Amino acid sequence: MTVPVTSVRETAVRTLRAAGAATGQLVGGLGTAFLGLGVLLLSAVAAVTAPAGVGLLLASPVLRALHALARRERERLARRGIDIVPPDPPPHRLGAALADPTTRRELGWLVRHSTLGFLLGLLGALLP
User: Is 85 exposed, middle or buried (0-12, 13-18, 19+ CB in 10 A)?
Assistant: First the structure.
């Protein structure tokens, strides 16, 4: 039985390519997490100001931003080769959109990704 022999150079090139791909994935996830912090902040402002009526005006743009960010993250993961099942399109009416399970699921993802994902992404990027 022969064992394939790889040179040090081949091993180094393969390792550096894998490290570059992993770094690209980390930076991409960190980017969507950073954008998610903004959407999360807007969501909080809309929720707090909803009783005054201002939050209701912000709700529709915030939901569009939430769905766009989640779609961007799904596309980023799909480029990596992960099978992603796209959700149904969100409803156009505000009441139906707020009650939509996809919106609630994406809002839960936003909270986790923009807080924990951002912190873990920073930790991974800053550690040697």
Answer: exposed
